[in-house]
Design goal:
Layout: H1 2-30, H2 34-61, H3 65-76, H4 80-89
Helix pairs in contact: 1-2, 1-4, 2-3, 3-4
Length: about 90
């Protein structure tokens, strides 16, 4: 479960950065819509999966609601899931 959650966190962070750093400029500056749609769908699916896994993981580990809120907020910030992985998930066995 931990490996899946960490992988999802990293992929969600990469998709977030790709969406805002690569495909949105293509969409608005170069009028190329397709990459934004594809990466946007992927990011949406990864975001939903990340939140579901955060709920399940926090419940299994009996972590507080505060830790879940921190994981959730991390998903809303650029580089946030990388920070959450490093701070909360990396040292777990």
């Amino acid at each position: 479960m931990l490996k899946l959650f960490r992988a999802t966190a990293i992929l969600e962070g990469i998709s977030y950065l790709a969406l805002f750093g690569l495909t949105m400029p293509l969409k608005y500056w170069a009028d190329i819509m397709e990459p934004n749609k594809i990466v946007g769908y992927a990011h949406g699916a990864l975001f939903i999966l990340y939140v579901i896994l955060a709920v399940v993981f926090c419940w299994q580990r009996k972590w507080s609601i505060k830790r879940f809120v921190m994981l959730f907020i991390a998903s809303l910030l650029p580089f946030g899931t990388f920070y959450a992985d490093e701070k909360y998930l990396k040292g777990l066995a």
